[in-house]
Amino acid sequence: MQVTHILIIDDELRTCQSAIDLFEGLGYRVTWAKSGEAGLAKARQEQPDLILLDWLFKPQGQEQWPMQGLDILNELGKDYQTAYIPVIIYSIKGDDIQIKIEALRRNSVKHSLPKIMETVPRAEELKLLQVAVSNALQRKEKLVVGEGIFRYEPASRTALIQETPLQLPRLEDKLYCLLVSRKGEIIGYKEIAEVLYPGEVYDSSLNGAILRVINSLRRKIEPILGHSRNLENRHGVGYRLYE
Question: What is the layout of strands, in order, in the sheet containing 238-241?
Fold first, then answer.
């Protein structure tokens, strides 16, 4: 049985130690990252089931002002590897942050945010945090991306095509989730490369690798659908998925 993994991103271990003790005592696997950069790297590499995030990060020594909670949320939300990981903001300013988050959701043009989010004031009892974590994990279990023929279940990382479940290799899984979440839109080669190969500088030499992933995914979709007209190539531009 897989153990639920919680990643805590907080610059001060002592302030989150009680949460670590609580969830480890409940049988969860808990890991900790001291900075936004380290937390994002862990989130992408380890794919935790839930992230517990501090809001304010203090500069250490002579370093520049570090990534803050909002910066981390934006990076999580725009990366299709992490956008569907539930995030609980656990901060002393929990109520104020909730108001800001609601405002950001209404201004989605400028901000990409994780799909499941909640705030819990750090001053509240740990019992409330435990309830928030449980509720967020339950919401993730029920989350389905897309509608119609093409859908995706982030909790189980399962592609659904005409109700047929399909487990895909990692790169095809990431590509399918991207296409389904942006169904009908043309997604350019550069954006696809950023999702499939994060950290690599895009140039046209990656187009061949992208094409191999596209073709492999298409060979899995077409036998289920019985035709090949749903994954469209706009030559020199990118790809789109449509029904």
Answer: 187-188, 238-241, 231-234
- Give me 220's structure tokens: 């899995």
- Contact present, 241 and 183 (Cβ < 8 Å): yes
Residue 109's pLDDT is what?
A: 45
For residue 92, what pLDDT band results from cuts at 50, 70 and 90?
Answer: low
Strand 117-121: give its sheet, edge to edge.
29-33, 5-9, 50-53, 87-91, 117-121
Q: Of 175, 161, 170, whose CA–CA distance to 225 is shortest?
A: 161
pLDDT tens-digit series, residues 135-178: 999 999 999 988 899 999 988 889 999 889 999 998 999 899 99
Q: Do residues 89 and 121 touch, judged by C-beta distance below 8 A? A: no
